[in-house]
Write a structure and sequence with these properties.
Blueprint lengths: L2 H18 L5 E5 L14 E5 L9 E6 L2 E14 L3 E5 L9 H4 L7 E10 L12
Antiparallel strand pairs: 1-2, 2-6, 3-4, 3-6, 4-5
Length: 130
């Protein structure tokens, strides 16, 4: 198995194993839209660890306060669980984020994006600017 292929397969197997034993702490999401380019692009698939603990600079999946059925992926700019999280897209011209809907309450935090597993050539931790 090539290094690239094993690097892609490991997070998927971990997510499957955690889900199979009922922990339900790992979620898979597909990125839609250009709001997080270049760090995340449309079609990228990411693993999200369910947690309310966030720090500035991390990428988070949160429910849109205007439409709670919609999950958006944004970078944490600041805040806290007590006052809400300010989240911003890396591409401000293409992002609907806290500048539009305000801080995201802690109960709408789905989790922290920890790994991009698809496409294989872009597998890794999403960082600003890449």
């Amino acid at each position: 198995m090539t290094a690239l292929r094993s690097r892609t397969l490991v997070p998927v197997l971990v997510a499957a194993a955690l889900s199979a034993v009922g922990l339900r702490r790992v979620l898979r999401l597909e990125v839609q839209g250009d709001s997080m380019t270049p760090a995340l692009r449309p079609g990228d698939r990411v693993l999200v660890v369910r947690t309310g603990r966030l720090r500035p600079g991390q990428v988070a999946a949160v429910r849109d306060p205007r439409d709670r059925a919609r999950v958006v992926v944004k970078r944490v700019a600041g805040g806290s669980a007590a006052v809400g999280w300010r989240v911003l897209g890396d591409n401000p011209a293409r992002s609907t984020d806290s500048r539009v809907f305000g801080p995201v309450p802690a109960d709408l935090v789905v989790g922290r994006v920890v790994y991009r597993y698809h496409p294989p050539e872009r597998a890794g931790v999403p960082r600003p600017g890449r």
